[in-house]
Amino acid sequence: MSAFLAVMKKELNSVLRDRTMVIAIIIQLFIASFSSALLLGLLALYDPDTVMQYSGSSVHVGLVSPAGDPLQSYLSARGIPTTRFSSLDSAERAYYNGRLNAILMVPQTAGGLVDIQLYLADSDFAPIIRTVLQTPLKQYENYLRAQRGVVVRYTGLQGKPATAFEFIYSVLLPILMFFPAFVAGSMVIDSLTEEVENNTLQTLLSAPLSINGIVNAKICAAVLLALVQCSAWLGLLWLNRISVQNSAWVLGLGILVAGITATGAALVAVLFRDRERAQFVYSLALLAAVAITTLLGLSPVQTLSRLAIGDYYTTGWNVALVAAFLAVLWLSLSSLAHRLAT
Amino acid sequence: MHQILTIAWREITRLRSRFGGASPLAVILMLAVLGLAAFALRNGAALGNGLYRVGVSGDVPTIADSRFAVVKVDPSQGQALLDQHAIDVFVDGSQVYSRTDQKSQYALTALMQTLEKQELLRVGSSYTYNLAFPLRVGINYLSSTPAAPGVAATPAAPVQTIIPSLTPPPAPFAQVIIALLYILPITFTSIFFTSSFMDEKINRRLVILLSAPVTPFQIILGKMLPYVLFALATTALIALLTHAPVLLALAIYAPTTLFIFAIYLMVPLFYRSFKDTTFIAMLVTTLTTAYLVFPAMFTNISEFAYLSPLTLAVKMVRAEPFSWRQYLLPSLPMAAIFGLAMFAGTRMLNEEFLMGYRPLTRKLTDAIYLMLKRARPVVSVTLMSLGMIPVVYLVQLVFLAIATNLSVGAMLGSTLVAAAFVEEIAKSLGIAVLADHGLVHSTGQLLLLAFLSALGFLVGEKLLLLVSINGVSQASISSVLFSTGGFLLVPLIAHFIFTSVVLLLHTKARFRYILALAIGTLLHALYNWYLVGGLR
Question: How far apart are CA B439 and CA B375, in angstroms?
Fold first, then answer.
């Protein structure tokens, strides 16, 4: 046992000494900070309303429209302040006095096509204004359809903007929980193949430790690092008031996946014995595993997202399935590990 | 040319022996896995995959949205399941039920988006076009100043006419994913290249090769050639499979491919152990992916998007045109960085540099010394600060991406300081290295070099602006980064002063380089701040 711990300690020491772990943590910090930058961008694209509230600015629209036209009420309902003008000229005067961001001109028509004109400045802000106006314009389009006897269902639905929620639980959290696993696998391959290529494995074997013991110690060290990283991320998410349901299972899944990548990586290292081929096959196998689990509907990414949002049908049993797979993988490694020493 | 091909052939042979007789098999396997992954993730890569559960009963359009798991429920049970939180929304015919909690409200938004699409399809197919889509919105841009009285102020015809319900959201999330699909095999191949280079460096074959009658340039190019060709071939293949124009795809991705290879060439030159290479390669992949993806997310939102070549690809996927300048803006810096990396690589490829055990900072200064020493300092320093511009430009962009997390004030402040810091390094590091090696002695010579370095930097900066001035007319941030304010003379003098301060403090007053750099950065940042209007 003490020999096992010694190998583990050696692994952890080498990682900490080489500052490689620091790089891995920098990568994750970068991903996290970068994701929130991306999130801000996504919010601006999908939910301009949120950004409007967030930044405190709003789009003031001048409206030139016939009496009784419902467009104004659609705009007001979305929190867009409007001012009515009798002519385009007077609206333009207000625009150039800086009181308006855009002008909408609705013509007087009865039936047929309705041609609205939108006037705005050609600036960086123009796409945001257009996105903000999109929903009221769509509502107006539905109103016109109804006038013409075309029935559109499900038009009155309105929930809360979901982009941030979807991004955090389906992209950010899986990245943070599974990146340590990816690192763990690469680490095991480098560590094992380096021992083989530098001929240090034979020396190590002269210690009172079997080849299985050495391989397992390396896997354990890698998984331990993943555990530390995953826990740190969960802690940071908690500090940022991002609630993660079933956090114990989420952490457990993160560690099990790290166990799978580390064991799988060791298996690949045992079979190929040199880094170049092993890393290649490992990356391919990882990609294939992601694809296959997605196709089978067993994707750990989805399981993780669902656990974190407290999905009714996703429980510890889904995690147990992953654990079972790890057990199978580990057993096959145990029976093959001796090949590394020959 | 003949030598390059010989080395390229040798590289292929090496790969073949490495992978036994399995090399065609390995290629097929790789393509198969990539294809499988693309197939599996084509829908699954959407935002919010599998987050919601919806119960349906009665006549409801098919919900083909990967965000939803759809359960058929009995109308009588729907409400109970909803209350149990087993489903998030319940659709009974044309009636939709939800709860008041957050999750159900999010699901409702998502459901609205997908049902809206379905309804449009139904309406579009069961009515005449003009009845189903009765609204047209003309987009007109107003001039920035009011027209003189008596002149028609409004443009005669709208620049664009849209149908609101058929206008896709400007967010190019899905297209960015497709564009990123091309990058995947390129990165994959370049990791192979790194591996091979690293391997030959460690078993000293590279050193033996250096004693053969071939130049370092031929060695690098020859070793890189098979991988680059393979990467370009996969690009063409993906374009073929996704029905995109092959030549256009190649034109867009070629500079990116070269850029990625340039960076992966540097990794084995600087690092020694496998673990280092793996982790640095990961870092590099993350940074380049971020650099490529982040601006592209703003396609059609801001001209700033054209800083990334993926934007061009997104445009290609959306079948929208882009101009020559918009093509050159991301491509030119990438190609320039490749050129710089090739040059640096040829100078660094010698036995002493490859095999020496030294800390990274020391290796970096050694590399710069090797790049500069052969030409006269006057020429090499000017060229170096000119050549560093694209690197500075990319680094600043990455800073900017990270800084967007901060509050607006802090973001501006940190961007100004970071921009100044990177620029000062680019201008002064080369001269400092030459001075440390005793190639520059007198104060006069130092000042002359500082002036030339500032000049080279400014010329490069203006060249970049010339390319981008129309491409990024509105991106005010880029004008902060590349300080356009004032006459040309003012920035030249300012750049000259900051660089001189750093150099004099370092070589004459014997300050540590990092300290001298910090002082120069501070001055530069204050100057930048003044330009943005901070002191007025």
Answer: 12
Residue B71 has φ and ψ, to the nearest 5°, of: -120, 130
Please choose, from the candidates A180, A335, A196, the residue with its C-alpha nearest in 3D space to the C-alpha of residue A278: A196
Q: Residue B41: which of A152, A169, A294 has the nearest Cβ? A: A294
C-alpha span between A212 and A2 (Å, rounded): 15
Q: Is B231:B250 a contact under the CB 8 Å cutoff?
A: no
Q: Tell me the backbone φ, ψ of residue A221, rounded to 5 degrees.
A: -60, -45
Taking only residues 148 to 167 of chain A, the set having a beta carbon closer than 8 angstroms to any beta carbon of chain B reads 148, 150, 152-154, 157-163, 165-167
How distant is the Cα of B465 from the closest Cα of chain A, in angstroms?
A: 19
pLDDT one-digit tens code per residue, B169-209: 655 667 777 787 788 888 878 878 888 888 788 777 888 88
Amino acid at A96: Y
Q: Are B87 and B103 in contact (CB under 8 A)?
A: no
In total, how many domains does chain B have?
Answer: 3
Q: Is A170 on the interface with B (CB under 8 A)?
A: yes
Range of the domain at B340: 171-357
For B307-345, write each residue's pLDDT tens digit. Answer: 788 888 888 887 778 888 788 888 888 888 898 888 888
What's the ipTM? Answer: 0.84
Q: Classify each residue of A201-230 as buried b or exposed e, where b means 16 or more C-beta atoms within 10 Å of its C-beta.
A: beebbeeebebebbbbbbbbbbbbbbbebb
Do the beta carbons of residue B315 and residue B299 sit within 8 Å? yes
Report the C-alpha gap between A188 and A190 in whole angstroms. Answer: 6
Instruction: Give the phi and the psi of residue B136 in degrees, each rounded to 5.
Output: -120, 135
pLDDT range class, residue A52, cuts 50, 70, 90: low
Are A279 and B195 in contact, with CB atoms under 8 Å apart? yes
Residues B278, A186: contact at Cβ < 8 Å?
yes
Listed by start position, the domains of chain A span 2-42+162-341, 54-147
Give the residue ranges of DSSP H helices in A97-172: 126-147, 163-167
- Please provide the size of chain A in residues: 342
pTM for the full model?
0.77
Among residues B172, B164, B170, B167, the alpha carbon closest in space to that of B47 is found at B172
The two structure tokens encoding residue A183: 């690192």
Among the partner-chain residues B98, B167, B276, the one whose CB lies closest to the CB of A134 is B167
- Both tokens of residue B524? 């530069």
Instruction: Establish if A26 touches chain B: CB-CB under 8 angstroms.
Output: yes
Query: Under an 8 A CB cutoff, do A186 and B123 touch?
Result: no
How many CB pairs lie under 8 A apart between chains A and B?
293
More confident residue, A161 or A73: A73
CATH of A54-147, one of 3.40.190.10, 3.20.20.70, 3.90.550.10, 3.40.50.920: 3.40.190.10
Q: What is the pLDDT of residue A220?
A: 93
Picking from A160, A229, A272, A295 by the largest number of B CB atoms within 10 A of its own CB, the best residue to mutate is A160
